[in-house]
Write a structure and sequence with these properties.
CATH class of one domain: Alpha Beta
Largest sheet: 6 strands, mixed
Number of strands: 22
Strand content: 15-25%
Shape: globular
Radius of gyration: 24 Å
CATH topology of one domain: Rossmann fold
CATH architecture of one domain: 3-Layer(aba) Sandwich
CATH superfamily of one domain: P-loop containing nucleotide triphosphate hydrolases
Number of helices: 18
Structural class: alpha/beta
Length: 512
C-alpha cells in the first residue's frame, strides 16, 4: 500500500516520533507533553499505573482521540492523524482490550469487512487464501471458515491481528492483549509477536503484567501521571527496577494470607444445587452446577471467557434466571429473589466492566458512590440525600485502599483502572457477607492490584465468603482456598490450589 505523497521510509530514524503530546479531558490531564520514539522491528512495552496515560497516548497515535498539543512525525516529517482511517493510511493498526468481531459471522467475513483494497466483485475464496497464507507464515493458525462465536478468546485475538496484517499495517498496537488468555495461549501469542518482530513489524504492547514485559519487550517506556518517566532496554529490566520506575514510592506486590479457611463447623453462605440456566445469543448455559461457599473462604472460578463464569456470577446476584435447581443464600431460598433484595441482604458485586455495569458515566464519583446503597443515605422519607454522609463514607472507603478521586469528577472521565478502583472501594465499604468479584484486578496497575487482592483476603479473614472469577491464574492460585474450572457451562475440575499447577488448569479451561 503506497504511503501519502512526500513520505519516504528510511532505516535510521524512528518509524514514528511523538513530541510534546498533551491531551485533556476536562480538568484531567491524561497526557502531559509526552515524547515517544517507535522503531521498526521492535516490541516496545508501555508501562504505568492506572491513569498514567498509556492507552490515551496510543489512541492519539491511532486517531481515536485528537491531541490538544504536540505533533506526530513519520520518518522526521509531521503527519496529521485525525481518524483511524488516517492511521491505517500510515500503516498503523490497533487491537483494543474489547475485541471488535461479529460472533455470528465467519473469520473470513469479519476480516473482509475491515479490508479496504477489495475488488468491485468480492471473491471469498481469495480472501480465505490470504488468511491461510498469513496464518502459516506467522503461526496464527486460524480457520477462515470458522464462526467467530466458536473460537476461543486467544483465537479471536489472532483474527484481530490478521485483520491488521491484511490491511497492510506495519505498526501494531496491542492494548492488554493477554488480559483474558490462559498461560499457553499467552505463550502462543508471544511466539506470534516474535515472528512479526523478525519480519520487521513494530509492536506496541500496553500492559500491566510485568511478566509479559520481561518475556518479550525489546524496549520499555514507563509513564507516570501522564508524563514519560524514562525508557530502558528489555535486557536491562527487572521486576524491581520497573516497579521503582512506575511509582515514586516503595511498593510491595506481596499479599498476606492468614492460613487456610476452616469450614468444619460453618454452614455455607451460598449453595447452588444442580443449577442450570438457558443461555441466549452468545451467552453460555450453565449445566448442573453444584457449588458451596463458606464464611471465611475464597472460591476461585477459572475459565476462558464465554464458558459460563459470567453467568455463574449473574446467577448468584439474581441477574440470570435459573430454569432448574435451587439457590440458597444464608440458609434461605433465593432462587427467585430480586437483585435488590440480594444486594440489600449483604451481597456485593465487582463486575467485569465497571463503566457499563457498575457506574453511570455522566454522574460524578460522589453520585456513583450512592447508587447501590440509597437507603443508607436517604433522608426526609427519601426526598433528599445526605451528601455529607456520602462524602465521609467515600473518603473513608477510598482511604482504606490509598485511592484518591475528586468527588465531583464525572465517572466517564476516569481511566478504566481508576473506575475499577472506585467500584472496589464502594463494594467493600460496608462489610458485605458475600462478595462476587469478577475480574477483580483487570486493568489495575501493580500497586492497585496488590491492594485489591489484600482487601479480598482481609474480607475473607473477617468472615466474608468470596466468589472470585478471573482468568489470571497467578491471581487465582494466590488467593483461592478452592479452585473450580468451568468449561462449556460445566464444572470441569475442582482443586486445592496447592495440589495442581497453572498449566493443568489452563488446559482444562480450554477443553484440552
Amino acid at each position: 500500500m503506497p504511503l501519502p505523497p512526500g513520505l519516504v521510509e528510511t532505516k535510521i530514524d524512528p518509524l514514528f516520533a511523538l513530541r510534546g503530546i498533551t491531551k485533556r479531558f476536562g480538568a484531567v490531564i491524561a497526557n502531559d507533553h509526552s515524547d515517544l520514539d517507535i522503531f521498526r522491528g521492535e516490541i516496545h512495552a508501555l508501562l504505568g499505573e492506572n491513569g498514567a496515560g498509556k492507552s490515551t497516548l496510543m489512541k492519539i497515535l491511532y486517531g481515536f482521540y485528537r491531541m490538544d498539543e504536540g505533533e506526530i512525525l513519520y520518518q522526521g516529517k509531521p503527519v496529521q492523524i485525525r481518524t483511524p482511517q488516517n492511521a491505517l493510511e500510515l500503516q498503523i493498526g490497533m487491537v483494543f482490550q474489547n475485541l471488535n468481531l461479529i460472533p455470528a459471522m465467519t473469520v473470513a467475513e469479519n476480516i473482509t469487512l475491515f479490508l479496504r483494497d477489495l475488488p468491485a466483485v468480492y471473491q471469498p475464496r481469495q480472501v480465505s487464501e490470504r488468511i491461510r497464507e498469513f496464518s502459516r507464515q506467522y503461526g496464527l493458525e486460524v480457520n477462515p471458515d470458522a464462526l467467530v462465536s466458536q473460537l476461543s478468546i486467544g483465537e479471536q485475538q489472532k483474527v484481530e491481528i490478521i485483520k491488521l496484517l491484511l490491511s497492510n499495517a506495519r505498526l501494531l498496537i496491542l492494548d492488554e492483549p493477554t488480559r483474558v488468555l490462559a498461560p499457553h495461549e499467552a505463550e502462543s501469542l508471544f511466539q506470534v509477536l516474535d515472528r512479526l518482530r523478525h519480519s520487521n513489524y513494530s509492536i506496541i504492547l500496553i500492559t500491566h503484567k510485568l511478566k509479559d514485559v520481561l518475556r518479550c519487550a525489546d524496549r520499555i517506556t514507563v509513564l507516570r501521571a501522564g508524563k514519560v518517566v524514562s525508557s530502558i532496554l528489555g535486557s536491562e529490566a527487572t521486576q524491581e527496577k520497573l516497579i521503582s520506575m512506575m511509582f515514586d514510592k516503595e511498593v510491595t506486590t506481596r499479599v498476606i494470607r492468614q492460613g487456610q479457611a476452616s469450614l468444619a463447623v460453618e454452614k455455607p453462605l451460598l449453595q447452588l444445587v444442580k443449577v442450570s440456566t438457558q443461555g441466549e445469543g452468545a451467552a453460555a448455559s450453565l449445566v448442573g452446577i453444584d457449588l458451596e461457599i463458606y464464611p471465611g473462604e475464597i472460591v476461585g472460578i477459572a475459565g476462558v471467557s464465554g464458558n459460563g463464569q459470567k453467568e455463574l456470577g449473574d446467577v448468584v446476584l439474581g441477574m440470570e434466571h435459573i430454569i432448574q435447581g435451587r439457590k440458597l443464600l444464608f440458609g434461605r431460598d433465593y432462587t427467585r429473589k430480586s437483585i435488590g433484595q440480594t444486594r440489600k441482604d449483604g451481597v456485593s458485586f465487582i463486575p467485569e466492566n465497571p463503566l457499563s455495569m457498575a457506574t453511570v458515566p455522566f454522574m460524578t464519583v460522589l453520585e456513583n458512590m450512592v447508587l447501590t446503597n440509597t437507603r443508607r443515605y436517604a433522608r426526609a422519607g427519601g426526598l433528599k440525600v445526605d451528601w455529607q454522609a456520602v462524602q465521609q463514607d467515600m473518603q473513608k472507603a477510598l482511604g482504606r485502599f490509598g485511592f484518591s478521586f475528586s468527588p465531583y469528577t464525572l465517572a466517564k472521565s476516569l481511566s478504566g483502572g481508576n473506575l475499577q478502583r472506585l467500584i472496589i472501594a464502594r463494594e467493600l465499604a460496608h462489610d458485605p457477607k458475600l462478595i462476587i468479584a469478577s475480574y477483580l484486578t483487570s486493568g489495575l496497575d501493580v500497586q492497585s492490584a496488590t491492594i485489591a487482592r489484600q482487601a479480598l483476603l482481609n474480607a475473607r479473614d473477617e468472615g466474608a465468603g468470596v466468589l472470585l472469577i478471573s482468568e489470571d491464574l497467578d491471581e487465582l492460585f494466590t488467593l483461592s482456598d478452592r479452585l473450580i474450572v468451568l468449561f462449556d457451562g460445566r464444572i470441569a475440575g475442582e482443586f486445592n490450589p496447592a495440589e495442581t499447577d497453572t498449566y493443568t488448569v489452563g488446559h482444562l479451561m480450554t477443553g484440552s
